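Section handout 9: paired folding examples.
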Amino acid sequence: MTSFSSEEPHTSSASPAKNVLLTRHEQRNMAVQLLLAMAAFGLLLCGWVWQWVFPQQSDVGQILFGVASLLVAVPVLRSAVYSLRSPSLHGVTDQLIAIAMLGAWATGDLMTAALLPGIMIFGHILEERSVIGSQEAIDALSHLTRSRARRILPDGEIEEIDNHQLLTGDRVEVRAGDRLPADGYVLSGSASLDTAPITGESVPQEARAGDDVFGGAINLDGLLCVEVTRTGADATLGKVIALMQKAEHAKPPITRLLERYAGQYLVLILLIAAATWFITRDAHAMLAVLVAACPCALVLSAPATAIAGIAVAARHGILIRSSAFLEELADLNAIVVDKTGTLTHGELHLQRTVLAADAPSDAVLRLAASLGAASSHPVSRALAKLLPREQYLPLDDVSEQQGMGVRARTAQGDALLGRPAFFSQNNIPVSDEPEHDGPLVGLALNGRFLGWLLLADSLRPEAQTALAELRQLGLQRQLLLTGDRASVANRIAGELGISDVVAQALPEDKLHQVSAEIAQGFRPMVVGDGINDSLALKAGVVGIAMGAGGSDIALASADVVLIGSDLRRLGTCVRLSRACRKTLKINVFIGLGWTLVVMAAAAMGLLGVGGVLIAALLHNLSTLLVLGNAGRLLRFDEPL
């Protein structure tokens, strides 16, 4: 695909991404190019309608075609001239498009002269948007690392500063609701931490004295005194930013067949035209060769297919950032998938209860939901969802012991909801704790233990079907890569038929694991939804984010976004990509084969005196065939 610069007349879209988003000048130039292309297509439509309604006034339609071609000629010719001063692979493609346009002008084919560069402008803007999305991910992650810190001074006073001013060895106070300003370890206090931004773990981490904690985690309750161990670029989130930038630059460029041989093709056509003139001394035959060789159908084959494919994907709730990733999906043979929020819903639910023999289930759940509503702890919030608010029991004298549980007085007596240790503190005997991988809370009323409530994250109902479909499509290698505990990960993998599991992985661990998969010869699809998955999403051949519950950073890092987060759309992505590849091969055959046949006929004088006009007509026919074949993709439909 050609590239029309948004700053210089020509800028390679495959070059490494800059460390900043597009400047205002670049954005303005892209907007002007898009406006010119849309205006040109509008004039083309008006010209077609005019010639159809008033066939005796076809000159008016030709004037409209001519104005449309002039509108889009500016960026095309500007890029071609610049590429002569600064030769590059993309510059050769710019020259081919300019030659095709000039050839169309020379033969009076003003419609093609406007249509070809207009479509190429749209294609360039689509590719440029992929680069912007990558930079947005890094910029959003950088904002996440900025917060305020309450530094404890040697005299015990507290000063509030920017977390970038912290030094290793500083002590900070982290209150409930605060974000940890840097990596460190807990000196005193206890609290539940939401570590999902770092590890992807849905269950809060209980932090006590001596535990290591990560910057970016959120203190849900309690008061912590933390000694800083790593700041800035050395902290966990700082490393994520650096590794993401490295992954962005290290991502291999997708080579395009037309760009690879564009220089040789240009030279070859000029030689064939010169040979035709030398042998036949027929200017019409030479010009017919040049017109026939205009690679409009060949150049349009890829973008026309990509535009149709991306439109079909959007109709299925799949957003694909670039046609390059639409192409890559066809060759995938492995999947690396996150657990929390991807294979599971990412929220705690009551899995089962283990109650005393005489404890009524309905009454226990009502009491648990009522007590849960009195706390902001994630486990309590999950229990509160068991019943609507109007069914809660009235509570008095509610008190919460941070990190332990909730106590309240009800009409039936004093009730307690909390950890096993909470009941030991209150001298309430409990039954044996059942084996369970997730959070476990007990419930007591009037000093009598009622039973245990076991919570866990639940699988998405379509997960098993989706992974089975992918195995049928050739993605036999399936790896569960998660920051969660090994016991939980192994249980989920067993239910889904996934044989390989890597658990308790930090973001950089996920990046290294995906890189190792690629080094072993696999071409993995990486699927995730959280900040902790952003590095892996960038490192994979194709990164796919869950759109409904995914973080903004994961969505910006991904190459593909599933808007509805239905995992069965992963199979749709692969099948659509393979349909696009089949269509593209046919289009390339039409574009290249037709061009060669018409060129040969023109060179041998078989097109006669009107060879230039005939060549232009045949050239337009091949373009229509390519567009029509690409349009067949629009019939692709996979209802869930």
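Moving on to protein 2 of 2.
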Amino acid sequence: MTTKGAVPVNLGNKYSLIASAVATAITVSGAAQAQQQATKQDKKVETIIVSGTPGGAGIRKLDASFAVTNVDAVQIERLAPKSTADLLKSVPGIWVESSGGESGANVFVRGFPGGGDAPFLTVSLQGSPIYPAPTLSFLENSSIFRLDETIARMEGLRGGPNPVVSNGQPGLTTNFHLKRGSEDTEGTVKYTTSDYGLQRIDGVLSGELSDDLYYMIGGYAKRSSGIRDAGFTSEKGHQFTINLTKEFDNGEFNVYTRQTDDTGAWYLPTPLNVEGVDAGFTQLGTLNRQAVIHVAGQDMEIDLGEGRGWKGHVSGGSLKLELANGWQLIDRFSLTNGDANTYGLVPDGAATKLASVADDGSSATGAVTGTVYDGDTWVQNYGRWVVLKDIEAFTNDLAISKAFSSVNSAFGIYTATTSAKDWWSLGNSAYHVLTAGGEALTGIECNSSADGCGFNYDINSTGDATTVAFYTTHSYQATDALTLDLGLRSEKHEVDYSVDEGLDGTIDKFVTYDERKTSWTLGGDFKLDDQSGVFARMNKGYKMPYFDDFRDNYGAYQGGERLIKEVTQAEIGYKYMGESSDVFATLFANEVQGDTFVRKPGDPAEILTNEAMGIEVDYNFNHSSGFSVNMNATWQKTEITESPNNVGNEAQRQPGWQLRVTPSYEFELGDMFATVYGTISAVDDRFGNNENTVVLDGYEKFDLGFTLEPTEQVKLMVSVDNLTDEQGITEGDPRNADAPNGRYIMPRSVKLSVSYSF
């Protein structure tokens, strides 16, 4: 991380290796394409997508007038994502900061503004949002979803008709599809270990229970001390999923449940100017995981080793029916309930030498070991934060549709009830020795004070939100080549919310909110030939406020602000799906009005308008020789156009460009099949704050993998993440942008797995 005006070293050569690799991949792809023999054209052209359609009705990907990225189970395995958010890096136009662990990622969409979390991301399972509020403080959608062998594929839709259907998300909707049973009984058992002590078992089994009744069951159990070793079992969890499908003559009925209990250490920004503090460093350890904090006049014992996680379930289902006279009905429903708690050691300011804070100006004593540390010891102030969050949501999306000659019409109603009960104690800070798992100190006055060494913010809150939206979509086949479509949505959003700040039993903030908005989308698709086409689209949508939006911006709300983010987007795209390759390229432009940014609780809100424009490319090539490559790339220009102080600056933490190339080669090794694959990632410099005074340097990252299949049933897999142990920075310190803290990407790690399928 550097200050504004710093000159990057060797900028001309910084990404030369990446550029060479991309050029080589494209050259090889072109040569191989000219020599291809077997084709996959039919399979590709007939790819069916359900994202962005009324009720999740399927359409051919080539016919869609919007861009959707598909990632199947094989690709997920090769990408070896560390978390659900990590997988989203495979979607063009998306910038992901997944260096905080399995939970608590920051996800940015196409230059949309944001100071953290994932305000413009919706994660759906089987077509239903797992939690209608995209982001609450300390909770974004990907935090309550875990990947395992039960996932068949993911669809990623950004922009397009998103503002009209489902929960009206104007940004990115990722839709995960579960594997489902068939007439054949199939299963996989997989064991995974790693160089950081991971022990994990996955399993999945599917088949037919009776005539036209199919099942899939699966899950995992895991334990490890974490990629950043905490010295104890800091990551542990298990998950169980069951998916049942009954087929009828005129449709099908599906139900599923996904039970999860999974927690992991919360990795936080660390100092960038202290020797020995690198990508493998974590504040958490045996000497500091247990602590006593003073809350509402009482001492409370906590275990920070509980980290961040999800203990709850996501359950739901769908009914699809072919009715009389060509009518179709689709109903999707989902229920989510559980606890998404957070415990962590949060840095408060820069690292400093002990002499500057010790009572005697020269030394202090370890509160656990009794070690005497001299004044030259590096220390840092850590807040011991506790967030207890009980969430629940129920959604239902009912749509009916019918084709009338050249017009296809659909009418739907989407309803959602969302609740959250929060208990927080933020602050509780004390100076700790700046080593991995460093202990707290005695001999520093504020360490022994009930108020700690910094701010404190404690709340008890409860909130309920109800959304009812009526929507309709219509497509018109103007000619054999030209299709036009229109979508409208009228949404009523209500919120009731109250907050006790200070945990004194007094309600300090209360909200009764009722707002209605109309969203729209208008698109056109022109088929150039059987393999290619172009499309154009405009839309206008809204991100409605939820509970934390009111608490953070209570003064603005009382002053008449409705706290609604208004999003306007335009897209022009080209698509090609050929015999061995497909290309989707989309030009986009957007404007987001009414964005609010609060650095930490109690700080005043900044209200901003952001604009962005750019291009995203999604390219895939598969050749019968065994060579394949995927490339996704994004270039964008962002600008803050309305702000109290930062007009003309770039949006914070958003790269001007990013590139990801994943080549692979399948070949025979004696009587066995083998695959070598890898991923090359590169990202541009970013600004760590809206003031554009803190520069987060760009970086490149290399991953490598190898699979070997001795038989049709057995597969061995080795994957290396961050092969060169790059010390890239994903973000600075969002609570104090000027402090020299940052969050590193994950250090190098190696995984080994062996699986048996039958």
